[in-house]
Amino acid sequence: MKYFMLSLALICIVMPLEVAAEEPADSLSHQLGEIVVTARKPGKDIIPAQVLSGEELRRMNSNSVADALRYFSGVQVKDYGGVGGIKTVNIRSMGTNHTGVVYDGVELGNAQNGQIDLGQFSLDNIEALSLYNGQKSEILQPAKDFGSAGTIYMRTRTPVFNEGETYHARATLRTGSFDLLNPSALIELKLSQKISASLSAEWVNSSGKYKFRYRRVNPAGELAYDTTAVRQNGDINATRIELNTHGILNRGSWTFKVYNYNSERGVPGAIVNNVWRRGERIWDTNSFAQGRYTGYFGKFTTLNNIKYAFYRTHYVNNDDKQVKIDNLYKQKEIYISSANEYEITDFWSVSASYDFMWNTLDADVYGFVKPDRISQYLSAATALDLSRVKIQASALGSFVHDRIKGQQAPADKHVFSPAVFVNGYPLRNKDFSIRVFYKKSFRMPTFNDLYYADMGNSKLSPERVTQYNAGLLYDHKSSSFITAARVSADVYYNRVKDKIVAYPKGQQFRWTMLNLGLVDIRGVDVTGLLTVTPYKDLYLTVRGQYTFQRAIDITNPADNYYRDQIPYIPRHSGAAVVNTQWRGWGLNYSWIYVGERYNQQENIRYNYTQPWYTSDLSLSKDFNLGKVSLRGLLEVNNLLSQDYDVILNYPMPKRNYRVTLTVEI
Amino acid sequence: MKLKQFFLYFLPLLTVATSCREDELVVPTEYEIIGDERPGADIRGFYLVNEGNMGSNKCTLDFYDYYTGLYSRNFYAEKNPAVVKELGDVGNDIGIYGRKLYVVVNCSHKVEVLDAGSGIRLGQIDIPNCRYIRFHRGKAYVSSYVGPVLIDPNAPKGAVYEVDTLSLAVTRKVSVGYQPEEMEIIDDYMYVANSGGYRAPNYDNTVSVIQMVDFKQVQQIPVGINLHRLKKDKYNKLWVTSRGDYQYRPSRLYVMQKKPGYNQMVVTDTIPIACSNMAFYEDKMYYYATEWNNYTASNTISYGVIDVRTKEIISDNFIKDGTEKDITIPYGIAVHPETGDIFVTDAKNYVSSGTLYCFGPDGYKKWSVRTGDIPAHITFLTK
Asked: Which residue, A26, A259, A588, B129, could crosslink A618 as a Cys pair with Cβ 3.0–4.6 Å?
């Protein structure tokens, strides 16, 4: 502990700015037990994920899933700012399209552009967030889950009833800066001994208005300009309704979910000279229904999913200085998956999965070819669980067939993606483990890449990624003074081949997509977690992550950005969270750092983007009034009011506040 | 206690490895010695506007000074540090009239006015979605995609704005065709190339004729679809380019001329080449053409010369030393009015620094220099 305080003190010396506000460093933590419980089924995945769950997740000063993901190592979040701003994630610099996002067991799709806006996913009903590099190292999973280069799993709350309970209810109200009004409610019902249902609903309304500031000085230190303005057209009005039913069978279980998200948003757009307000608006309707059946028959386990999704996006440009645009896009998806595992012996099992997916995109845009796509995935995997070594190997075959209206469709695509994961315990006590993995994966060109009017190129082939990873984990739990300690470090080498990039074409300002890029990525991810109980009832948890990434473009020595760091990937980034729990009180301090980056391919002065770091603080108190439990949470984000852009010309909010009140029965 | 050691070393390391924010500086100018000096020449130098990709706010200005042989890259912010968010988003044209330099900044919806000698800002003219600028008898004319009156809000016609060059105030507006681009003034008529580029496949195909006296559109002459460039040669012929529909109808070059005894411009020739941009020097028209070939997934680029008297192609490559292999996407062309040196800009991939090439009249490269993003439009400064 002494050493630890010393290192904290060292941070204070190096970074005096940060410290003033975070002084109560020795009085933070959270209930460790909860994480362990919600983390994962033990023994199944051989390489553990990074997990944020339960109480810890709720205290993290996060507006959305994207905000929470910033605490994971190896992840870069692109954030266009504000409540309604688009937020996408990129794992280990491989690109957003290589990141799978799974919601309660089924991957979310976007055949149009391959990117999932995680700003649309509220944390309100999320129980756990996990990040897997490579893949979830579990062999019983849908074939598609073997396909992404990295995957984020979001899991919503599953009702658990104690003896004699028949219902739970929770109501939450969040309000604060940006004129935020965000009520939500959850009802869980025990319908019978074996069936339960939950209904979760949420409404978000915000003007999206916040102050931001641009300040420049000349090299002599004299002020050049200093402007504070209010972000406009960033308003959002959204609703989410989610109905879940869960059932237990004699030899298995089933769940069924219906999800609907509706929003109207302003698109705040880039702040450029003479333009402080824009007139673009987007209406989104995302609906899906998904069902899952899991069956256990002795040594045979089966996991089956089915999903239907409908996404509607209506984009309007009302800016009277621009040419009017009014486009409607509709996407449909049907997904059927069957994963099956057989335990040959108690240490050796095999699995086979087959997924079928159909996607279509319709748009009222001139010359639109209305593509539809049939994707089939077939995987085989095996797992060996010897006492000191666990090995998993999987192979995925992907078969993609596109059809387009009135034209000849591009040739079918077949991709083979193998992966091997090994985890070993060199010491007897299993606190310490070593892991390595190798994986090949790919992303299909999206409908936009292939067929977007004038720009698409139907001759594109899939973009491929090869990953090599080696790492260590020290994970120790005890009931003494240090209740938990975990440190992990991974080094990795990724190569993105045939990267799909925009290429200038023909006359004037026109583009096409080509399989041109080659990116070499070398990185280090380090995470650490320590929970101590210095006094009775006082829990202190410190969590840290650091990421180093050298992701360089090695496409062509003739390019003026040859061997330069790719855009928006910082060499250094990290986060630190200090959490204290004491008799119903909780204090959470989190600090996020993203180092210097370049906003375009060339690493020159004109493309330089400064590092940013924000400090967030939250204070919570739990009360119990008989059977009713109450919680109040007060958050201050960007405590030091740093003026920063994550994406060039998309200013982020200055200091902002949020108050949350929760009542639970 | 391994763990304590970890925190002891790891956390401070994290802080050392990372760096802190500093004050954001005004973007500094960069100078390069080119050495192509012509002290005392009538042409003092030239300005180059780099468009910058949309949303990047990276429209920048470069200047080459023939008196000192120095190329200054991105001088605007340093000369005008108080301008919030610098020059703006997507430059589209540049011109000098009198002692003023005008920069059309398309996505900042303004024409920036600078002192042509010093580069110091004099003011700005707010014109929505402005595209090109020309000058005539004390007035500046700016084409705009958005007309003053929205007759049909779903298909807004473009306009030409008239600006007084002394007061920098908009004096008159006239509605023209869809998404007007370049224009030219001959006698007391203005000719405007209408593209209709946002209306595919229903492109506009006309040149608007505006009578300057009462600033009215008096005629729309059908020429070809998706018109863009419109430039006059020394014989008052108009050279007009059509971009085609990028698919079935190829890009074309048209010549318009008044019939003797008539006041009306008519299309006299259709030259079957794809012309992207052009510049005139004496009786020669230098042009480049970029055409995308879907089959080979590559651009076919040519650098040609046309004799404006005979309208015949006299060379299909004015670059004689093989430099054309280094140019990814030619994006701008200009000819030095005194020396006949030819300038070609390379916009590369549109999102990285471009290159400006200077070729002697013999077609051999004299020098080249790194520019801002999407170097595109050049105007020469006289003494």
From this structure: A588
Residues in chain B closer than 8 A to A271 (CB atoms)? 57, 85
Residues A162-172: tens digit of each pLDDT: 888 899 999 99
> First CA to last CA across chain B, in angstroms?
77
pTM for this model (two decimals): 0.90
Report pLDDT digits (tens) over A217-234: 988 889 999 999 999 999
- Nearest-by-CA chain A residue for B88: A273
Cα Rg, chain A, nearest whole Å: 25
**Domain ranges within chain A, ordered by starting residue:** 2-18+44-664
* Positive or negative: CA dihedral B67, B68, B72, B77: negative
Which residue does chain B place closest to A275, by CA atoms?
B108
Q: How far is CA B232 from the centre of its chain?
A: 16
Determine which helix (DSSP H) or strand (DSSP E) holds B207, and give its type and residue range. strand B206-211
Looking at chain B, the number of H-run helices and the number of E-run strands are: 2, 29
Tell me how far the alpha carbon of residue B9 is from its chain's centroid: 55
Chain A contact present for B276, CB below 8 A: yes
Q: How far is CA B159 from CA A279, B176, B193, in A?
A: 21, 5, 11
* Residue type at position A426: P
Nearest-angstrom CA–CA distance, A595 and B15: 11
C-alpha distances out from residue B362 to A242, A621, B321, B324, B358, Å: 73, 81, 10, 14, 11
> What ipTM was assigned to the predicted interfaces of this complex?
0.91
Q: Give the pair of three-digit tokens for residue B226.
A: 């998706």
Q: What pLDDT does residue B354 have?
A: 96
**Minimal-distance CA residue of chain B relative to A504:** B349
3-state secondary structure of A155: strand
For residue A509, the chain B residues in CB contact (below 8 A) are: 51, 350, 374
| CATH classification code of A2-18+44-664 | 2.40.170.20
For residue A246, is pLDDT > 60? Answer: yes
Q: Is B5 left (phi over 0), alpha (psi -120 to 50) or beta?
A: alpha
Q: Which residues of B301-337 are buried (b: 16+ CB within 10 A; e: fewer)?
A: bbbbbbebeeeebebeebbeeebbeebbbbbbbbbbb
User: B 277-336 residues with CB below 8 A of A?
Assistant: 289-292, 297, 299, 326, 328-329
CA A412 to chain centroid: 31
